[in-house]
Amino acid sequence: MPFNFLILILIVILLSQWNRRIQSKIMITIRTVGVAAILAVATGAANAQELFIERNDSSAREVERAYLRGLQYLTKSQTAEGNFSDMPYGSEPGVVGLAIISMLAHGDDPNLGPYAQSIRRGLNFILKQQNAKTGYIGRSMYNHGFATLALAEAYGMVDDARLGPALEKAVQLITGSQEKNPLHAWRYSPESTDGDTTVSGAQMVALFAARNAGINVSEEAIQRGIKYFVSCQTPEGGFGYTSNSGPNAARTAIAVLVFALAKEKDQEYFKSAFSYLQKAPPENSYQHYFLYYAAQSFFHHSPAEWQTWNKKNIRTLTASQTPEGSWDGQFGATFTTSASLLSLALNYRYLPIYER
Fold first, then answer.
1. DSSP string, 336-356
2. Domain 54-354 adopts which CATH fold?
């Protein structure tokens, strides 16, 4: 092996414990110069996760083919302002955020790669939607949570000095809203005094991503959020919307992911939630929303559980993708396509939030 490649491997191993934002930059740079296989060896030596574990499996080729078609659809349907043509959902900053994340998740250089312009346009759109004083993004906390997640995943990967300050303000809005809420949860607006598990899940994942990116997020905020989720767990192990009744698969997948990101997988509430998720009836009303969270939930539980679930998901999504490369759903093609792509993106694992 050439000496330069040995040096490259050594550097990656030595830096394997550094801030995950730095790791992401290294991964993207190495992929860009065509030595991703070397990175996979190096990170494996450092006990990190492999990229595309089943690299020689036909499913890997199916994922790549479907993913590229989906990204092509998103880039073609994006406007010059950075939002997307399917109204009204394509103009929601949270949906734009998910589209950006799906582009980042493919692992191309976000500054010079094929999706760099689309990523920058999308980030510009989100930043313009942010209230300069309060840090609030969009017209609902759903939008704010997913848009904040996009800022967190882009921060440190995209060369844009605006991202850090914007992310800090967005995080402060989330934690400030929680502090004022009697349930220490979140709902539709920053001033809400009640909570639900779907909006709260979006804020919690955004907080974990921001903390991964180096933004200060107190452990107290995390634990308060965990306590709220536990209060909504039903006797069956699933999760209700605003209380511990009426569980469904989508909300349970959200809770499983939140517990996993909080490193709470040894807790009984995580185990019973995942047990419910395994046996839950199919999610028909919010299928692609469910897929986005379920993929991460199964992935964080164990490699074996994820591989079984992932193969089924690949079959389902490759069969239902439209000729244009999109997926159809009740919240518009941009959201549905982005959520579908992100459920497949665990096969790449370039996003910091996708690391075990």
1. HHHHHHHHHGGGT--SGGG--
2. Glycosyltransferase (1.50.10)
